[in-house]
Design a protein that fits this description.
alpha+beta; elongated
């Protein structure tokens, strides 16, 4: 599992709905978990850029959440993939 690391002051809540808002250019690095236990996770912290600007108190946000939202199919794509219900197909044959 991968996380983006951001300064706490650069992350805010969405005005409407549930979620966080931040500028992807503000990402300080990534944290990749290699081993997890009930209480703690162990992993590698990789910085973005030349300088290490990661500090205690920075925020970590799962990367999978933003990727899942970007790759989620739209309602039109979902309905196009689904077969027409039996009643609808029968009506189309009649008309």
């Amino acid at each position: 599992m991968k996380f983006d690391v951001l300064p706490a002051e650069k992350v805010s809540l969405k005005n409407e709905g549930i979620g966080l808002v931040y500028d992807p250019a503000q990402v300080l690095g990534t944290f990749t978990i290699s081993t997890m236990d009930e209480d703690v996770g162990e992993g590698a912290l990789a910085k973005s850029g030349f300088y290490d600007r990661i500090n205690p108190g920075d925020v970590v946000i799962p990367q999978s959440a933003k990727k899942d939202a970007a790759s989620a199919p739209t309602a039109a794509e979902t309905s196009a993939k689904q077969a027409a219900p039996a009643l609808l197909s029968q009506l189309r044959k009649i008309l």
